[in-house]
Amino acid sequence: MLQRKKKKGINNVYGKIAAVIIDKHRRSSSFRVGSMLFTRTPEDTTPISNSNSLVVEVPLARSHVAVPAGWVLGIEVDLYVEIPNDNNEKPKHLNVTLTSDKQTKETVDNPKGTGIEVKVITTWSPYENPSPQLSSPVQVTTDW
Question: What number is the average pLDDT over the span 32-38?
Answer without folding.
Answer: 77
